[in-house]
Amino acid sequence: MSTTTSPFGEAELTDPWVALEPGADPAEHARMLRRAHETFTEAGTVPRPVRPVVADSWRRSARAGVGPDGTADVELMDGDLGAYRAEHPLARVMPLFRELLGTFAADGEHLLAVCDAHGRLLWVEGHPSTRRRAGRMNFVPGARWAETSVGTNAPGTAVAVDRPVQVFAAEHFIRRVQPWTCAAAPVHDPRSGRVLGAVDITGGNGLAHPHSLGFVQAVARAAESHLALLVPEQPVLGTPELTALGRDEAQLRVEGRRIRLSRRHSEILVLLARHPEGLSGDELLCALYEDESVPPVTLRAELARLRRLLGPSLLASRPYRLTVPVESDVAVVERRLETGAVIAAAAAYAGPLLPGSQAPAVVRLRRRITDGLRTALIARRDPDLLADWAHAAWGEDDLDVWRALATVRPTAAVRARLASLEAELAAPPAWPRSAVR
């Protein structure tokens, strides 16, 4: 692995996902990182050679209002924690995690930790004395270790960027976590591809070795393979499934294939799945394009490409329609909301519908689903559901949800975030200098 020299005199890694090059001096590298961290917390700039993945995470942490002297909040305890863990999909692979990582953690005085997709720790196991030390910083089951809560850390950052990641020493955003080093990898649902959570190994500086990152990634892949065996593939002739929440490019599962769709094709399929009776060419033009001057031939070309991708048996014309019913995650959330199953609706909601789409009909549908769910969450006043929404990327600036959360879980971190949002709302707009006369 090649390196370059930083202004601090350190060898700079060219692999951004590896925390420490083999042979590097951990103590010296940790001192460099502490200086860089102080520079960022004081001046807001990130000196080189802080890795890009860490620099980006520090910036996200600061934007979320995380302070370097903060701590994690314990959100689930006792019976609530036990019930949540029992229902979580990763409970089915905990025996595998313990078999592959448990002995390594115990023998090496490390910790095995597993979090959910929101960075909430579900299990923390390992060496007893290490667990006691970790408990002093609330690295315990039920605590939220998402980036938006405690800043840069391996499990929280792994689910935030959907990549295996190491975090070494003062790369951690919160100072009390900086004596630790950790490596984590996200675990995905083998059918939908959604992040279920992450598996993490936490301990001393020895975990900064590249092998620990590869090890935890291999464990995550083994867990996904095991989950695939526990959840058999659908029959070839099963109902096609469209996944479009929380992603700019939808995925269609049909006849054993997984098809990743372009943004325009995603928009078309979302609308056709919602209108099994079909849509005329003019109706699709109005639904997809804000510009009324777009010629029909543009849409016909998109539909021709989509038909070649899907096969002629799935997409018919006059009107444009799908020849078989298509199940979508959008419909699942809507059905659950209609029946009052708010917890189930929140579990199925992976994020805003095609968030980058500007198609008028998609924008309206996205707002309807999002507003319907957040209204139901606010009315239900469940602190865990509200916290999940508030700490998600789409909810971090949702003032109404943060206000609702502050009434049922008025922790210091929640009150601080709410105060920050209210201050931003009350602040006068920043006028461009050129506009001031």
From TrEMBL:
The keyword Transport does not apply. Keywords: DNA-binding, Transcription, Transcription regulation. One of its GO terms (biological process) is regulation of DNA-templated transcription. Pfam families: GAF. The keyword Transcription applies. InterPro entries: GAF (IPR003018), GAF-like_dom_sf (IPR029016), OmpR/PhoB-type_DNA-bd (IPR001867), Sig_transdc_resp-reg_C-effctor (IPR016032), WH-like_DNA-bd_sf (IPR036388). This is Transcriptional regulator. It comes from Streptomyces lincolnensis.
